[in-house]
Amino acid sequence: MRARRQLLAASVLTAASLAAACAKPPAPVQEVVAVRTAVLPAAPDEAVWNAAPEHVAKMIPQDLVEPRLLAPSTAEVRIRALTNGETVAFRLNWADTTKSDTPGPAQMVDACAVQIPQQNGPQPPAPQMGEIGRPVDVVYWRADWQAIVNGRGDSIRDLYPNAYVDPYPFNARPLVPGSPEQADMARRYAPARALDNNRSGPRTAPVEELVAQGPGTSEPAAPRGSTGRGIWAAGSWMVVIARPWPQDVRDGQRTSVAFAVWQGSQHEAGARKMRTGWIPLLAGGAR
Amino acid sequence: MARVYNWQLGRDMSYWYPEKRPQRQFAAVFDTNKCIACQTCTLACKTTWTSGKGQEYMLWNNVESKPYGSYPLAYDVRLLEQLDGQRWEGSRYAGRTIFEAAPAGERVLGWRPEQQDYSYPNVGEDDCAGQVDHGALIQVPHLSWFFYLARICNHCTYPACLAACPRGSIYKRQEDGIVLVDQGRCRGYQECVRGCPYKKVFFNPMTGTSEKCIACFPKIEQGVQPQCFVNCIGKIRLAGFLSAADQAKAENPIDYLVHLRKVALPLFPQFGLEPNVYYIPPIHAPLAFNEQLFGPGAGAAMAAYRGAPADRDLAGLLCLFGSTPSLVARWRRRGDLVSGLDEKASEIVRVPLLEPVHVRPAVDPTRQVVRTNCP
Predict the structure, then answer these.
(1) pLDDT at residue A21 in the model
(2) Are A67 and B191 within 8 A, CB to CB?
(3) Angstroms from A132 CA to nearest CA on chain B
(4) How far apart are the first and last CA of chain B?
């Protein structure tokens, strides 16, 4: 009898999931609507994303400050958003026929970012990285960090499988492999790591939290627990970026959000990027 | 862009930031005529600074055989092709610098080496400029020639890497003019790699940041010359500080060679960076080639160097190269002895203008045997 009840419950859940998955997605909207949901999806390909209406954001090249991106690449990014009231998750979907997740000289990687003003107001700061005294919060995701989180190792052979490498000084005796002394020595031979540069790895998350007050000013932000996950398939990226819901925006209110995309195959990095302007972000839209 | 003065061009030029010269400028003189391409400098640097993960391909110091050698591949030719019309009117540069030739939307005229361009650090090694046919005789000037060009970061007065960085991660130290990448701030956009015409900034794929020659600043701060200088077998290098062109002091060895005797010249001054490593041109290479590399002063510099045997001051100062690990702030010649002094005018080294020569007769008259040099 107990087994029957469990089977029945499972059947009801499956039917509900299928119904959600097969339901016709809401029509595209002119703003980003963060739909309320009890549990936020971690993966970009979960069916629950269909509950959120899609906003198709047209992208423009960053052409305000040098170095500019003069050749447009990513034409649009498709956005969906879900929130549980505490966290808001965005799913960015853009076409990119080349998966670029291996860094190297002249080898840029695919990336995207979500930007929200630190303080909500009728006039958001400049859409390009904010302005002095009016900062923006940015969560930045990178394809190579995703590869590391997915299991890519922290060695040059993980980037260049056929590389021959002389022994590193920090692998020499009398340093004991895996010892704290060896780890300390290895950090000395990786200057950016020795200075705790967020960029330099090794990484446990594919995203980085930043705060900026204008172009070229991004700095590491106090940790807010943002997460991310990206999947490349069939010539497009789907990336989920989740961050705390802005505390000064209540249900039914609006703030602003902007997005940026970098295509590694087009040598896009830093200021050379495709971006959107500010887009209204509606909190807690009905499901 | 701001207007700044570049004494190597003899004119003002455009630069991304206003002119702000350091309190003193790290500088060096390399005598190309003495380099034997043993690469000891390269290894001294490599083992000191770039033996970590992601630094495998980096050569902050390299020695390339000119005319064909280059690292990364064709770094010089690639830019020279883009920067056409490099015309000098006397000692004044009438062409455009890489800042003045920057395309719309760019801060400098640059290009980005691909990974393969770093795969052949010894390309062109010992290759002559021309074919040595069977039965060819040595002629003067040489039909076939090559020379070795040792290169480090030039710690330029107007660094293109610094200008190209959109987030100000590269800075020039006020105390000594050394140009550094802030490893805490760099985000690995590789704009500096693209912008530096000498390609002396390298991207580290393991840390995601760009790295470059630091002129061994911990040694400079202790009054000691960098690793690639003190380990130089051929004693071709001398490190020091260069004064402004209108404040040159004869007692300063770098000033004497660069500003007063003009025997040491910048590499590709036409790029406009005011580089601070100065080269005594190879006297056996064609003048036209030397002028392209070192500017219109190449002919006079070659003549001065050729005249060194009869020029006791110039010859004397050249004897100080590689004679001491310490930075030589001043120098003086008294008769046949040349001294290097520190900043407090204390003597740190004394060398003879001519090494004593001992001639050992080929025949030992006592033992009635012929000496040989065989072991």
Answers:
(1) 45
(2) yes
(3) 15
(4) 66
- Run of H or E residues at A147: helix A143-149
Across the interface, do A106 and B112 touch by the CB < 8 Å criterion? Answer: yes
Q: Give the mutation candidate from A108, A128, A160, A199 for the B interface (greatest B CB count, under 10 A).
A: A199
Domains, chain A, in order of start with CATH, read 31-154+207-285 (2.60.40.1190), 158-201 (no CATH)
Query: What residue ranges of chain B have pLDDT lower than 70?
Result: 131-143, 373-375
**Can you tell me the distance from the alpha carbon of B6 to that of A268, in angstroms, rounded to the nearest whole number?**
33
Torsion of CA A160, A163, A167, A169, to 10 degrees: -40
* A154 touching chain B per CB within 8 A: yes
Shortest distance, CA A106 to any CA of chain B (angstroms): 5
Residue B293 half-sphere exposure toward CB, CA atoms < 13 A: 27
Strands B147-151 vs B170-172: parallel, antiparallel or unpaired: unpaired
For every residue of B249-306, DSSP letters joined together read -TTSHHHIIIIIS--SEESSGGGSS--SEEEEPPTTS-HHHHHHHH-TTHHHHHHHHH
Mutation test of the interface with chain B: which of A189, A209, A211, A218, choosing the one with the most B Cβ atoms within 10 A? Answer: A189
Q: Does B274 touch chain A (CB under 8 A)?
A: no
Q: Decide if B118 and A193 are in contact by the 8 Å CB cutoff.
A: no
> Predicted ipTM?
0.90
**Cβ contact, residue pair B166, A269, below 8 Å:** no
Say if A189 is an interface residue toward chain B (CB within 8 Å). Answer: yes
User: In the predicted model, what is the mean pLDDT of residues A213-235?
Assistant: 96
Residues of chain B neighbouring A201 (CB-CB closer than 8 A): 206-208
Q: B305: which residues sit within 8 A by CB, 6+ positions away?
A: B33, B263, B280, B281, B283, B314
Look at residue A111 and give its three-state secondary structure: strand
Does A5 score more than 60 pLDDT? no
In 3D space, the residue among A265, A284, A280, A251 whose CA is nearest the CA of residue A103 turns out to be A265
Structure confidence by residue, pLDDT tens digits, A226-251: 999 999 999 999 999 999 999 889 98
- CA-nearest residue of chain A to B167? A216
CA angle B280, B283, B289 (to 5 degrees): 85
pLDDT at B137: 66
Paired residues of B238 in beta bridges: B29
Do residues B315 and B331 touch, judged by C-beta distance below 8 A? no
What kind and span of H or E run contains A285? Answer: strand A279-285
Provide the shortest C-alpha distance from residue A50 to chain B (in Å).
35
Of A103, A197, A217, the CB nearest to B205: A103
Cα distance between residue A200 and residue B189, in whole Å: 13
Residue B147 burial (10 A CB sphere; 0-12, 13-18, 19+): buried
- Average pLDDT over chain A, rounded to an integer: 90
DSSP assignment of A201-255: ---SSSEEEEEESSTT--EEPPP---EEEEEEETTEEEEEEEEEPPTT--TT-EE
Taking an 8 Å cut-off on Cβ atoms, the answer to whether B105 and A70 are in contact is yes
Other Cβ atoms within 10 Å of A162 Cβ, number: 5
